[in-house]
Fold these 2 entries.
Entry 1:
Amino acid sequence: MNRNVIISFGLHTLFVIITAMSLPFLSKKPIDLPPIISVELIQITDKTNIPFAPKAKKIIEKVKEKEKKLVSEQAPPKKIKKQKPDAVPLPDEKIEKIKKIKDEKQNPEKVETEIKQISEFEKKELFDTNNIAALIDKSKMESAETNKKIDKVSQNQDKEMDYGGLTLSEEDALKAQIFGCWSIPLGLPFNENLLVRIKLQLKPDGSIIRTEILDHARMNRPGQAFYKVLAESALRAIKLCQPLRVPSTGYERWKDMQLNFDAREMLEG
Amino acid sequence: MLFRYLLILLVLLPIKAFALIEVDITRGNLNPLPVAVSPLAIDKSSKENFKKILKKENLGSEISMIVENNLKQSGLFNPLNKDAFLQEPDIANLKPRFEDWNLIKAQALVTGKVTFVDEKLRVEFRLWDVLAGKEMMALAFTTVPSNWRRVGHIITDKVYERLTGEKGYFDTRIIYISEKGPKTNRIKKLAIMDQDGFNNKYLTLGNELVLTPRFSPTNQMVTYLSYFKNLPRVYLLDIETGMQEVVGDFPGMTFAPRFSPDGKKIIMSFAKDGNSDIYTMDLENRIVERISNHPSIDTSPSYSPDGKYITFNSDRSGYQQIYIMKSNGKNVKRISFGNGLYGTPVWSPRGDLIAFTKLHKGKFYIGVMRTDGTGERLLTENYYQEAPSWSPNGRVLIFYRETKTNAKGEGFSAKLWSIDLTGYNEKMVETETDASDPSWSSLLSN
């Protein structure tokens, strides 16, 4: 009996382990962490204190000279011709120069390794015309990949937005449009509640199908005559503005919308 | 069992819940509202009749011009050029083609008809919401033909009220001091005119010096100060009947008498026993009551519209500032704390603001502040200007401004100016002569 129980327990345990190992949904996918982008914090000053690279410095100086010569009327055209790209020292020459200087001062072995490292780094940065085509091709591929990534993200975001409200920029665009259309009646008593809520039904192009003043009953209350004036001004603004600046996608989420017109802020100044 | 399945199904079904998007609109523009004022339609026989009586070629156009000018002067409306109108006045009055009016960007449209009925002038007008395509208001007035200008003002008041939410101020009059002659020997007469400068009339002959006329807030009564045998005397004048009576002699009077909001009292300041204080006089029993009692100089009292408070200026702090107190003279509180001297405080008919004149670094300003002294705003600055008076709706101030004389003593002038609360719509009010000390009446049609 005990033996059978042990065998059964053992087999069951084995079965559970196998199931747990083999079922795909139980195995958690490794978290796809985006690559870490290191950001160097630097102190912003009026003038840069980073010395120019010797090569770059020379190029800048030559460009400056070129500009000067081009500006100067007296400069002979021949001299401009002399400013050839050959004048830019080749990296090997430059490294040799550095090597010589370093040789004089410091331990040759250490310096050699350092310089080698520098030169390799600089070589990579050198602009090789023969590789332009390859670079362009590579950049094309990279941009295509990033585009794909962006597309995926935007589609997902769009799906999420279908269930949410307007984005800040969409809301701002709509607000800015209506601000321009709404002529606020200046005679309203600003110590009263000056909020008019209007429910809209919109067409996909932003034009109005139907408007409804939500606090309609307030118009007929005694002492609330100003509310009618305010509500009418808000309706005029909507009609004047139509078609409203609504997003081009996600019609379902904004086909019904509520605009809350509040004049108090403007009238209190 | 079926219930269980349904329950599971309900849980599993994705529920698409859309929350209603709400957008808060807290800003708008304060640009003048584009309005089309169509000439009022008039039939041929009515046109001929009015031409005989009033010497006006087309009374319909004349009345619409009054409406248009009033709306333009208010600064809140932009009446559109009539040349752009596509629809004839008679058809527009029956049923406007809103597309046509929409095309010229009109948001509101005024149409109407003028007829001559039983020796009387009948004017009907309609206000249309062009964007909504519906009628907002329709009214008709019948009056004697000579009242045609007033009809124009009343129409403007109705349009203004319907579109802005506050009462208009167009069917009103302004009483002022007409001034003529050299600065050293000015002839001052009491004069009255419509708020747009028309129908000017002189109420006194100019033999005696008249000063500071003030309208009653309830009716067409005016109180003013006149010097009789070099003694200041307070008069009451009924504009409608022309009846005038003396309220009393007040030697040592320093500033304008003003009505209480119910029109039953006059509040003024005068010097008694060498001390200038504020007093009221009951117009029925002529009992004079002392309100303020302070060794300093208290002048320029003005009631709040509910009659519970009085604003005045006093130098009790060392230099002239604005104070408020209860109408029984208690709870005196200083409200102006800015640099310079403050004077002539006037409580707005809306009750929310106090207008004043301020003198600072040799310049005169007309400004407003809240009744607790906060929110001081200077609306206009000039070499010399003072005595602001509110329009009955508390939106516009009228005051007078004097220009500087040159070395030869020439170039002096005094004119009436108006400015609204925004401080932008500043305009000179045309008068036949030089003018000072204006006071705005309440609405005549009330």
Entry 2:
Amino acid sequence: MGWTMLATLAVLVSAAGAPLRQPLCEASAEVRRAIDEATPPGALEADFERASSSLRAVRERFPQDLFAHARYQDAVFDGGTEGHLKRMLREYQQLSAEHPQETLYEYLAGRARLGRGTKKAVRAMERILEREPAFAPALRTLAEIHGSAAFGDAAKERVEREAFAALCPGSQIARRPSPLPERSRLLGGAGFAGDGRSAERGASNADQREATAEEIGRALQADQARLMRIRLFDWYSEETKARELLDAQAECWKAWRMTVEHHRRVSDLAKADALLAEMEQRLVTLQRDPRSALYRLAARTVLGLYADAKDPQRLRDAFDRLRRSLGQTPNPAHAAELDRLQATLVARE
Amino acid sequence: MRTTRVRLLFVLLFSFMLARGALAQVDPGPRGGPANAGGPLAGLSAAEQGLFNDARDVFAEVDSVSGGIAGEDGSGLGPTFNANSCAACHAQPAVGGASPHPRLGQVLRPNPQVAFATLDRLTGRNQVVPSFIRVDGPVREARFIRNPDGSPDGGVHGLYTIAGRVDAPLSCTLAQPDFAGQLAANNVIFRIPTPTFGLGLVDNTSEEQLIGRFNNTATARAAAGIGGHFNTNGNDGSITRFGWKAQNKSLLIFSGEAYNVEQGVTNELFPTERGGVESCEANPTPEDHSHLFNGASTTGTLTQMSSDAVSFANFMRLLAPPADTTNTLTEFNGRALFNSIGCNLCHTPTLVSEESIFTNQTNVVYHPYSDFAVHHMGTRLADGVSQGNAGPDEFRSAPLWGAGQRIFFLHDGRAGPANGGILRAILEHSSPGSEANTVVNRFQALSPGQRQDILNFLRSL
């Protein structure tokens, strides 16, 4: 018998007023209160280790409460590292093995794979529903999965949603994955346009002009952390991951440019020069990659900063160095870009 | 009268200095001119040269934690690390070599390990450059001799952690090891990068030949008080030949081990993240692996589909040996003396590769100047670390090919431009318990000019 039919059966059984078991729709008030106390708003973002530790304590206080466990799992999904995610999966696999006859732990072990091995999570939920068609959490989880972009299946989702609603009227079904953190406003968040324009856009923004090195670093860190929320999960396609990675790299060039400008603004020229030299080395690395999508942006950024220094000799020297290194791995497109830049920037001088 | 006396004193002093200069031997220093290394083996096919070029690019790839930092496209760095690229440390005189130096040699680059304390780090989150890492010093890894409970350690402890880097997980707070405390407790030893030129030939040399050549010198070695034995693999008993204690079986194992230990990149050979700090583990393991897909396609070049570790090994397999420049009378004389006093008993000049899968690489005669055996090197060089069958004071006879362009010598880089270079390295071979004592005594019994010839010869390798 298919899981869809079982889900329909669950609705019918529920409608007949003969629930198979307590439907497990929402956390009890006591558990909800404990969870809220453990993770006040912003706690997970501020200090994941501390907040997740508090949630583990809630879990230990209510070891058989599904919602205490689920909240901990969601916290790890939203803020954990690869290491935390792995540990969570191990924990729930072990719990399931220690409680072989208990649907609660089987469910939690399956749920621990959300976004990490989502197809396996689906199979785990389906197995549970074959045995217990009215196990509402599994219906809820399946509806979440089939409502996602990556694993979307509108027909299945509708059936699961209806079956869950019948068992748990008024209960909500979460969106998967959780919304990503916004890209940092400081670095523009415009995305990579492939030509350097995105990284140059917003340069007139007052926040960006005034940003300190520390603020820029934090913004870069936040965007790298956002990238981790994408990289580690199968909610996102390989294409999306590649695009986001490129965006993150493009943001680096913008961040470094802003940092050099900051150092110059506060007359810390030694730091500005050191960072610019480091950027030039990275550009040399890109020169060796014939397929580099960021070469143009990088070259414009580095050479633009040399030009901004109003030292024509330094600018010429930089062009000379780049041409020499390009000579070791000739690339007509990169050479043409240098020609274009030289025409523009030297003319500006 | 006073003026005459001053003049006489000056003349005497000048004469003394002149005589001393003529008599004393000095390391000529790293050879200048072209690198004479870093290219592919001679005679490779076009396809093999293409593979070499592709693999060299991977060897030079820079890693960040997740690949999200521009110019650091590789991923998997940390949680602990000594470097972010193979080529950062294997640099002098060309990619594949050894530690660079800011003012000497071909590449003229400072020790890259200094920059890793600040590279990509948040304001106020820089790490400390350990006291044994200097801008003009050797690239080093640090090993602790003992664990806190007194049991043997011997493992590498990364100089830096990813904590504080902009691309580290926000929750990662892993601190650097307490190097100052460990140094104070005399619990730290160092290793420097070994050059990788020509290692494909070594990889492709039969055990029978290594053993045969070793046995051929048994009588002469015994006469010079030299023993030695091969380090061997604990599983199949075969000879291991790479690394300072010849602890690694193959170039592939060497690649996988170094990728994991030096850069913190887990791979198919060493799949376990070191350190076990969940909050700093940023990637699924192994971080480096074979590829089923190349973009959307299931096909690609060998390098596109291979793991980085395999590409590193391919680069080294196809990397030519350094070309010597021995051509002057003093260098030829030095070579003869090198052999006559018995240096060659361990630093065996010549080996021959066996059947090769690569074009024109079968039966290649090459000159590594090593027997690839390990020897007791005495109390002065002993580092207290055992690896495989190599004991606390045993080291592989370091291959001397390319020595002419190396900046630092001995396993921990203790000999370098600041203290006599290659001459210091020779003298350090001698201490109680060293199998090299007799040969070093013979070296010291040579005339200064003869000793200089040997140094000149070594700098021509």
